[in-house]
Each structure stands twice: as C-alpha cells, then as structure tokens.
Write a structure and sequence with these properties.
Length: 158
C-alpha cells in the first residue's frame, strides 16, 4: 500500500438492531487505536524490563456534527412495513445519521467498516461504550462515540 491521504472515507456501523447504516456525512474525525498489553516477566536478576506480548485490544473514536434527522422518534413501530424508511432518514436521501445509530445505545455488538482514504479498510465487531452530544461555547453542537473491541478478534485491515 502506497502512502496516502485520509481524504474521503466511509463509516458504516450497525445500529442497535444490527442493521448496517452508513453516516459518513456526519463524521468529521476518527481515531483507530490498536494496542497490546505488555506482561511484565522481569526477574530480580535483571536491571531492565522483560516483557511478553499479552492480549490485544482496539478502540475506535468518532466525532462529528450533530444531525438530528432520523432520530429514534421518527422510526415507525417494529414490524410496520408500510413505512418507507428511506424517507425517514436525513431528509429522505436514504442514509441514517450518527445520532440515529448511536442514541439508543443498546447492548448489541456492532459490526463496522471504516474506509480510510482510497486504499484502507478496517472491518470488525465492537461494543458501543459511549455516545455524547455537546454544545460548545461557540454554539456548535457536536457528538462523540467510542467503540471497543468486543468479540475476542482483531479488526482486519485490507
């Protein structure tokens, strides 16, 4: 893979019911942090640390501008197939919003696909740890969401 910018990307994450939703227009920044625990195995005969690799983990942090279109209050009752959901979200363009995807929190694991620029894609399963909406002193209404590794497997990159 050649060096590249992060210009253009796609964020697709499952909502609380497991349906994949794309809401890239609401996302301004993201951070993907992969880590591995370091197990201290230093004996008393050493003057420097000895470590072995332990369990891996990852966290995904997303942030963006609040978009209330398609919030849960606009969604019809479960099983009501008479409503065209494409018209419910984001003014009728058929895409969900970050608020719709994250506001219900729920306990279901979320499948995700993050397309990073033209040549990088991260895919995995995560648990929604937090969703926050904040108003800044300048009047900006923004949101942040944090998802953590949840199924015992590393995310895959392609």
């Amino acid at each position: 893979m050649a060096k590249q910018t992060g210009i253009t990307g796609t964020v697709t994450i499952g909502d609380a019911s497991g349906v994949s939703q794309t809401f890239s227009a609401d996302v301004q920044t993201f951070n993907i942090n992969q880590s591995r625990a370091q197990i201290d195995v230093t004996g008393i005969d050493k003057s420097f640390m000895e470590r072995l690799p332990g369990l891996g983990d990852y966290t995904i942090e997303l942030a963006g501008v609040y978009n209330g279109a398609g919030t849960a209050t606009a969604v019809p009752a479960f099983g009501d197939s008479s409503v065209d959901l494409a018209g419910v979200f984001n003014g009728g363009n058929g895409t969900a919003t970050a608020h719709y995807v994250f506001s219900s929190m729920g306990t279901a694991l979320r499948a995700f696909t993050l397309v990073v620029g033209p040549q990088g894609t991260a895919v995995g399963t995560a648990a929604l740890a937090s969703y926050s909406v904040a108003r800044g002193a300048d009047g900006a209404l923004t949101w942040t969401a944090t998802l953590n590794c949840a199924n015992g497997w590393a995310m895959s990159w392609s």
